[in-house]
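INFO  loader      accepted 1 record
INFO  loader      residues=431
INFO  predictor   begin
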Amino acid sequence: MRIGLVNEYFPPHAPGGAEWSAYYLGRGLVEAGHRVVVITPNYGAPHNEVREGMAIRRFWYPQKLEPGDLARSSLHGNVLFYLYSGSQVYRIAREEGLEVLHVQNVYSLPGTLLASRWLRVPTIVTLRDLRSVCVGCLCLHRDEYVPEHCSVLQHWHCMKEFDSRYNVGKGIWHRAKWYSQAVAKRLDLTVRNWFLRRADRVITISDGLKAIYVRAGRFSSERAQTIYNLPPIISSVEVNAAQLRCQYGFQGRKIVLAVGKMSFGKGSDVLLSAASGILRAVPNALIVFIGRKNPLIEVPKDLQPHVRMLGVLPHQQVLKLYCVADVVAMPSVWPEPHGRVLLEAMSLGRPVVGTKVGGIPETVEDGVSGLLVARSDPDMLAAAITRILLDAELGERLGKCGRQVVESRFRAEDIVQRTLALYREALTERE
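INFO  predictor   done
INFO  writer      dumping tokens
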């Protein structure tokens, strides 16, 4: 089968876990004997490249990015990008003779769906986040689902809450611009959801994510199928733990590792609030953040000797750093679509602590393959992390069980075959 994977980003331009999930899917499809063509903007990278058997076709894009950086969302979320990207997807798909187009992120959907209709091939879309539910989704920082009373008026109230939290200290012109962009994003959401309802197949990466979309009225339960993310390929991870600890100055410290951009949704501030409780019980603990920093989340002065921010690192280096972590924490407040960080950590046999939101409970079984706590609760988070740090036997047991869960429930071969079966269903319907 000739398969096109379409995404706004692809390694080396991979600002988040979604891009690496698409990368591992592509590799899995290639290993299953299929032709995979990745279609993505170039951001300054070569237009044509072959990587791990995947043909990467990049089309011109006006903004140049460093690996790990994000383009302005307004450059992706607009009709001009949809029409332009659609023409490029059409051109490349026609040249490559692609039979299926699989969209990996929401801003690639409108253009790809247009191209697929011209080419008369099916479009499958994988939903990896909540950007087709709401622009801000602050309600989901508190509630399990979008409230039934959600409306345009309620959205305006949410935007005011968002403004008060994220635009602290900004001037009137910045805030006026921000509000106008919020209105534009709301209109863009309506456009994208029109296309979402017309995709041939919808994949969600967890049942938790699927339930949020269904309850929000984006599609019926029958239209979507849950297919989990593929785990990382850990055979390529070679680590000298002592050398790595020395390189980063981790000697004699108990490492609590948090991977992902620092944000309120990711619970970075909750982990910092939990740090005092962790340090009282484990004075040599070190909280390590990997990911983009957030100027709105400051480390208190008394905690600074016990917190390390490593910024954005290459994916392979992140996988290596998991191996020197005593516990990997994912204190997400928003409903994490799947919890790729936990999947990666468990693949490498590390004990994990997560929150009971979104798809995380589908990845981690509390007390068996990790520990789960309520979101936005620093005391519970500190207690769970401390419990693992003080009980080496518990940490070893959780890590071992976590790896077994990944090897059994998240087998790459099974996930690839389920994806291929969905492609075949869509192709059969087209015929």
